Amino acid sequence: MIYDCAIIGGGPAGLNAALVLGRARRSVALIDNNKPRNAVTHASHGFITRDGVTPGEFRRIAYDEVLRYPSVKHLQTEAVEARNNASGLFEVLDSSGLRIQARKLILASGVKEIFPEIDGFYPLYGKSLFNCPYCDGWELQDQPLVVVSESPAVFHTAKLLFNWSKDLVVCTNGQSSLSDEQKNRLQAKGIVVMEQPVTAFVGHHGRLEHVRFADGTELPRAGGFVMPRFVPAVPFGERLGCERTENGGIRTDAWGRTSIPGLYAAGDASYFMPSQVVFAAADGSRTAMGVNVDLTEEDFAK
């Protein structure tokens, strides 16, 4: 079977794209390995009608809705290769050797986070340590917080977090990522800046208790934010020759079209930041409309 569109990725972008295309009576192969990046998160926030929903419940509701449309097929497998074939179709190879052919391909595979290597981080991640103030700042309001980042963007993050908690410590993890002027502005607000390397997060049962530094100092904190570096979750865009944006995402036009004809990107795979469920879902919807318009024009040109 040749599908109208294959979608790699079953996050909010891929699911919403499948929903729109299913309603447009397009045949869709939704390829999803069931390994969502936000699986560690206790709840998703900021999406009207779904504020506080768990990632598992969000996926359950989404798949119930998407699979009402008979032209959408859910392939619970992992895509390992994507390419153009000689006949002008896109071909996706999965981990079992299955080959899926489609006229159009949407990359909605998202990003993965590369966090600083700090002992004790992962048992606390998604419980008292997070990476997005808009997602989890409300739950940590007025608590003693730490923000750890090696990027100059930590200045912006600290200013944002000050609206949720005035008890902030900014850690640059051994990097000189803040200018003297920025440090002075933060300190004028009572925000402590610590530039020595962070060696460990200490806590129990998911709750942060102390941040430990290379000199042996321990600072009591109840929670905080660790800022990752984002990279593509899969390299298909690069392998297929897509142009990239300055921040590493796949460059697209207003309808999700990449620099490769017939290839689209949606959600985090495209814009990288901000990484929000509501942004990704909206981008998936818009990209699906772009796909449907292009399919329609091709069909009428025959």
UniProtKB/TrEMBL annotation:
InterPro entries: FAD/NAD-bd_sf, FAD/NAD-binding_dom, Ferredoxin-NADP_redctase_2. Signal peptide: none annotated. Keywords: Flavoprotein, Oxidoreductase. Residues 3-284 form the FAD/NAD(P)-binding domain. It comes from the Bacteria. Its cofactor is FAD. The keyword Flavoprotein applies. It holds the Pfam family Pyr_redox_2. Homodimer. This is NAD(P)/FAD-dependent oxidoreductase. It comes from Paenibacillus ehimensis.
